[in-house]
Amino acid sequence: MIRKSIILITLLLTCSLATNAQTIESLNEEIAKAEQEIALNEKLLNQIKADQTGNEKQLKLIRSRISSRQKIVRSLNSQINMLDKGIKNKEQNIVELNKRLAMLKNEYGNMIYESYKNYKLNNSLLFLFASKDFNDITRRLDYMRRYNNMRKDKAVEIDSLKIQLGEEVNDLTKQINKLDNTKESRNKELSTLEKDRTQYSEKSKELQQQQSKVSKTLEQKRLQKQQAERQLQRIIAEEARKARAQSGDYSEEEQRAYIELSGRFDQNKGKLPMPVTGVIIDHFGVHQHPTQKNLTVNNKGINIAAERGGSVFSVFDGVVSRVVFISGLNNCVMIRHGEYFTVYSNLTNVNVKTGDVVSLNQKIGSLSNSNDNEDNTLHFELWRGTTNLDPEPWLD
Hints:
This protein has helices spanning about 1-45, 50-120, 125-130, 135-215, 215-245, 250-265; strands at about 280, 285-290, 295-300, 300-305, 310-315, 320-325, 330-335, 340-345, 350, 355-360, 365, 375-385, 385-390. By secondary structure, it is an alpha+beta fold. It folds into two domains: about 1-210, no CATH class; about 215-395, Glucose Permease (Domain IIA). Strands 1, 4, 6, 7, 8, 10, 12 and 13 form an eight-stranded antiparallel β-sheet that branches. Strands 5-11-9 form a three-stranded antiparallel β-sheet, with no helix packed on it.
C-alpha cells in the first residue's frame, strides 16, 4: 500500500512538472519574440533622422517598445507565479515524503528489534518446536520467510524513498534559484520599462511643441491620407463585389477551389507570416492621436515600420486582384484568397501584376529606400468580402 502511494505521488509530481515546463517554455517563446521586436525596434530607431516626420515615428516606435517590454514583464510574472506554486508543492511533497520515511523507519526498527529479541531468546526455534504437526511447521516456516521478506522490502522502500527525497530537495533548490533569476530579470525589465516611459513622455512633449508650429502642414497631410484611405476602401469594396459576381460564373471545379482556398486561409488564423520584417507601430481601429489630444485616428489596418527598401511578401496563396497607385498611399497590391482580401499599401516597387497567381511568402514588392520615414512603413489591411478585419490576430 505504501509503495503504491509513493508511486502515485511520483506520477502526480511528474505530470505537474511536465505541465509547468510546457507552459514556461511557451512563455519563454513569447519573451524571445518580444526581445526580437525590441532589437528590431532599436535598429529602426537608429535609422530615423531627427526631422518632424521622424520624430512622430520615433514616438510610435518607443510606444511599440514599451508594449513589447510589458509583454516580457507579464510573461516573467506568470513564470514567477508558476515557480512559486511549484516550490510550494515541492515543499509539501518533501514534508509528506519525510513523514512516510519516518513511519517506514519506525516500522523497520520495530522489525529489527523483534528479530534481535527472537534471536537472543531463541524464540524462532521455540516458535517452530511448538508446532502441532508437519503442516503446522510448514505454515510457520512460510510465515517466518514472509516476515523476513517484508523486512527486506521495508529496507528497499526506505532506500528508494531516501533517493526520491534527495532528488526532490535538489529539484527544489533548482526551482528556488530559477525563481530568484526570474525575479531579477523581471526587476531589470521594470527598470528599463520606466526609462522607456520617461523617454516617451519627453518625446511626446517635444513633438507637440514642434507640431504646433506646423499644424497647417500636418492637417493637409492628414486630410490627404484620409482621402487616400477612402479611395482605397472604395476600390476594395468594388473588388469584393466583382469577386462575388464572378463566383456565380465559376465552374464547379473553380467553385471548389474558391471554397477550399477560403477555408485554408480561415484555418491559418494566427499563423500567417508578417508581410514585411518590421514592428507594428499603429494598430487597427479607432485610437487617439499620439500627440494631438482632440484628434482620433480610425485605422482600417495596421502600419508596420520596416527598414529602408524592405521587401514585402504575400501572407498566403492567392491571385493578384488589382495593382493601383493612390496618391498618399503609393502603390497598392490587392490579393484575393477566396473570399478574403489582403491589401499591401505604400509600395515603391511592385513585382506582380493583376491576374498573377502568388504563393505564400512570395515577394510582391518593396518599400522605399529613401530617408523619408513615412515611405518605410507598410500599411496592411485584411478584408472578408466588404467586412474590414483586424489583421493582427491573423499574424503569427
